[in-house]
Design goal:
binds magnesium ion; elongated; 7-stranded mixed beta sheet; Ribosomal Protein L25, Chain P; Rossmann fold; binds adenosine-5'-triphosphate; single chain; 13 helices; alpha/beta; 26% helix
Length: 565
């Protein structure tokens, strides 16, 4: 690190960890984990947790496991497992040989449950789900003991064995921890720890089990089994901590992880609940989990966000216990900053208007050189072809300038074609409906590269040769929701009521400069004056390449909000 570089202040979790190391806790060892449930793709909120957990391991010479908390087989599947592994790796993190599944511990966890029964700390309960809810009480009223609470250890052992053997139907019996039905903390009111689930095939254990441990029981004990020293999780688990501590005190797994909670990332104009993201996918509101409008890692990758810029974003938003509502503009600025430095510049025409340069020889093709970056020469240059026919953008021409600020091409006026010549518009060709279909212009050979002395041409527009331009489809993506917090919008509205109907505009007749046939799927470039665009990975429509808009050049939403506000 250079001496000028600022050392970022430590967040509260890093401070705790440094104290623990200094005090010789766990012999100075640091072990964390990222514990997703494979019931959906990872999203930007998970990225925060991944960067935190793997980052802590990296910074303090520790280890970070990837563990799937896979206790809910009917909502999970192997597609999600594979997608999660791919996304964590793509983000730049490595679990080495520490890929685990909570289901690896099903036999052990079953043993722990038997241990609790033997200690008189768990019992088989026959109450229905509904009765359990009523017996549970509320925040204001204590719960009521289950009539099955005082079954003998022998009876409980027998019934639990028969649950495992498949003698009972789903919902007929449950195993519950025996804690305190009057506890002010509802999580402590004899929580369910095992339930019966017939007829599901678990993606890891197949049909070996018909009873499954509940998440709360599994999660903390799995952390213990893995020797996790610091169990980092989001704030909603704070109320579960007493229960986790109870399990870890009753059962000696050899390690009692220290749980530390931090606030969830909530990103403006999107949602991060996996249940809702699943709905958007299943109900066809988006094209899939990797739709570039989705806040998923897969979607952001397809949109052209780099792993580095997502990591930078996670670093900058920090880790605290207070609300972590972040504006979309903040994320987009991280993306822009990265692309402004690293994305090569290219020319692309999104709304083509043909220009015939009448005084340019018909069969002449000229190779001109164009810099790949206006400031950074190390990005080199490429050749572009100039020819008699070129495309410019419809928005760069008006018959009459609407105001003095309009520096583009007008009838009888001059403009520079970027990296090439100055042209003058001599004639506007229209169809029968009076729509402009073509411009006839003339070029000035003396203007290549610079204006000759005394010549003032201020406007510069981009263009693509009609001779070898590549026909392409360009997708303009925008925010998925119009409401800043669709999850907590006005009462009586559903998050889906706030979907942005304009979140995708598809332009099917675009032209790209020829050098873009070298672009690799996933590569992001700047289309000059238009924004940053990424070659879609694998999606080709009508033999045309598809480019996704990653982000606009400027924050256009800020402008809109200012106007309307
Ligand atoms: P759901 O949306 O179903 O509630 P989840 O977001 O909790 O699920 P998990 O797979 O359990 O999904 O999450 C794995 C880890 O990522 C957990 O430790 C969780 O705390 C963390 N995580 C999830 N969402 C966020 C978020 N928005 N910000 C920070 N961390 C998050
Ligand atoms: Mg969860």
């Amino acid at each position: 690190m250079s001496s000028e570089e600022q050392v970022a202040p430590k967040n509260f979790i890093q401070q705790i960890i440094e104290k623990d190391i200094a005090a010789g806790k766990n012999s100075g060892k640091i072990a964390t984990r990222f514990p997703p449930e494979p019931n959906g793709y990872l999203h930007i909120g998970h990225a925060k947790s991944i960067c935190l957990n793997f980052g802590v391991a990296r910074d303090y010479n520790g280890t970070c496991n990837l563990r799937f908390d896979d206790t809910n087989p009917h909502k999970e599947n192997i597609e999600y497992v594979e997608a999660i592994k791919k996304d964590v790796q793509w983000l730049g993190f490595d679990w080495d040989d520490r890929l685990y599944y909570a289901s690896d511990y099903f036999e052990k966890l079953h043993g722990f449950a038997v241990e609790l029964i033997k200690k008189g700390k768990a019992y088989v309960c026959d109450l229905s789900a509904e009765d359990i809810r009523t017996y549970r009480g509320t925040l204001k009223t204590p719960g009521k003991d289950s009539p099955f609470r005082n079954r003998s250890v022998e009876e409980n052992l027998d019934l639990f064995a028969r649950m495992r053997a498949g003698e009972f139907k789903d919902g007929e019996k449950l195993l519950r921890a025996k804690i305190d039905m009057a506890s002010p903390n509802l999580n402590m009111r004899d929580p369910v720890i095992y339930r019966i689930r017939h007829g599901v095939v678990h993606h890891q254990t197949g049909e070996a089990w018909c009873i499954y441990p509940m998440y709360d029981f599994t999660h903390c004990l799995s952390d213990g089994i893995e020797g996790i020293t610091h169990s980092l999780c989001t704030l909603e688990f704070e109320d579960h901590r007493p229960l986790y501590d109870w399990f870890l005190n009753e059962i000696d797994v050899g390690c009692h992880p220290q749980q530390i909670e931090f606030s969830r990332l909530v990103l403006e104009s999107t949602i991060t609940s996996k249940r809702k993201l699943t709905e958007l996918v299943n109900e066809g509101f988006v094209e899939g989990w990797d739709d570039p409008r989705m806040p998923t890692i897969a979607g952001m990758r397809r949109r052209g966000y780099s792993a580095k810029s997502i990591r930078d974003f996670c670093e900058r938003i920090g880790v605290t216990r207070s609300d972590n509502f972040i504006e979309m503009a903040y994320l987009e600025n991280c993306i822009r900053e990265d692309l402004n430095t690293n994305a090569p510049r290219r020319m692309a025409i999104l709304h083509p208007l043909k220009v015939v340069i009448s005084n340019y020889p018909e069969d002449k093709l000229e190779q001109l050189s164009a810099a790949n970056h206006p400031q950074d020469e190390s990005l080199g240059s490429r050749e572009i072809t100039f020819s008699r026919e070129v495309y410019i953008d419809r928005n760069d021409f008006m018959e009459v300038a609407p105001n003095k600020k309009f520096k583009r091409l007008v009838s009888g006026g001059e403009v520079r074609l970027r990296n090439a010549y100055v042209i003058r518009c001599d004639e506007v060709i229209k169809n029968e409906q009076g729509e402009i279909i073509e411009l006839h212009c003339s070029y000035d050979e003396a203007t290549l590269g610079a204006n000759p002395e005394g010549r003032k041409v201020k406007g510069v527009i981009h263009w693509v040769s009609a001779n070898n331009g590549i026909a392409a489809e360009v997708r303009l993506y925008d925010r998925l929701f119009t409401h800043p917090n669709p999850d907590k919008a006005e009462e009586g509205t559903d998050y889906k009521d706030h979907l942005n109907s304009d979140s995708l505009r598809t332009l099917t007749h675009c032209y790209l400069e020829a050098s873009l046939d070298q672009a690799q799927p996933g590569e992001t470039v700047q289309f000059e004056r238009e924004g940053y665009f990424c070659l879609d990975s694998g999606h080709v429509v009508d033999d045309k390449p598809v480019f996704n808009r990653t982000v606009t050049l400027r924050d256009t939403w800020a402008k809109i909000e200012k106007k309307s506000g």
